[in-house]
Write a structure and sequence with these properties.
alpha+beta; two-stranded antiparallel sheet; about 15% helix; about 35% strand
Amino acid sequence: MIDQTLLTDEVRALVGRAGEPAPVRVTRRAAERAMDVYYGHHNGAVATDGTVKGVVLAALENESESIRYPDLLPDGLLISNEWEFSRPLRLDEELIVQSRLVDINERFGGRFGYSLYFRSDAEFRDSTGEIVARSVRTMMQYDAASARDGAEE
């Protein structure tokens, strides 16, 4: 069981770092794959007007170089995935995505024992440079071997 912080100055210095901007294309395959994962089907992934469901961001983020978190604990879990849109995404448009690490914090105790929380955001910009969507993720790292069964949250 970990009883002291793993958040060294070196780890804290990662906050604010951004990955390289990378192009991603909104494809039918990405839209359908995201719909399959989130809804169990891909019906309606692409509307008749050429717009796609917002969950396509999940697929697009995985196709780009996102921020790499340091592997400080052996197990990981996606805690939340929040999306914001300034307009609908369109089939076949190219966007530029850039991710950055926004925050790292830790928690001692609880069901998962010592855990680290990494919050990152990815901005998706169109060809004019306008932000059309943003994805904010919180990932947790923990050590399942040291987690306590039935512990208070």
